[in-house]
Design brief:
Helices cover about 25% and strands about 25% of the residues. By secondary structure, it is an alpha/beta fold. The chain has a domain of about 70 residues. It comes from Massilia eburnea. This is GTPase.
Length: about 120
């Protein structure tokens, strides 16, 4: 099962910095970010870095991931989980529905693929 952490915080930059702070070098990591890229993202890596040091970063347009963005999130997750990463982070632009998203991720098929970790507050 892939350890999965939902990340909440006031800004994209704060959430991305919180994720960058807990990444383990050399561990295959996937990150799903809701919202637009920040020009000074902590998750931008030098292309000369070894691939193992670079997480897979997937951006989803802003919109509640458990409501309006549900289909996009499911498609992204399904693609990622074909070759599961060692860890997964999902950054939410709005923490209002974090419990609804957790509930969705605790149902089939994700309940057998993901192990939800405590929420990371940025």
């Amino acid at each position: 099962m892939t350890p999965t952490t939902l990340v909440i915080g006031p800004t994209a930059a704060a959430r991305e910095s919180a994720i960058a702070a807990v990444l383990s070098p050399g561990v295959a990591t996937a990150i799903i970010l809701e919202g637009l890229a920040d020009a000074n993202s902590s998750l931008v890596y030098d292309e000369s870095d070894p691939p193992a040091w670079q997480p897979q970063v997937h951006r989803i347009a802003p919109g509640c991931l458990c409501c309006a963005g549900n289909l996009v999130l499911r498609v992204t997750l399904n693609r990622l989980l074909r070759r599961p990463p060692a860890q997964l982070f999902i950054s939410l632009a709005d923490a209002t529905h974090v419990e609804s998203l957790r509930a969705m991720l605790e149902t089939a098929p994700y309940d057998a693929l993901l192990r939800l970790e405590p929420v990371l507050n940025a």
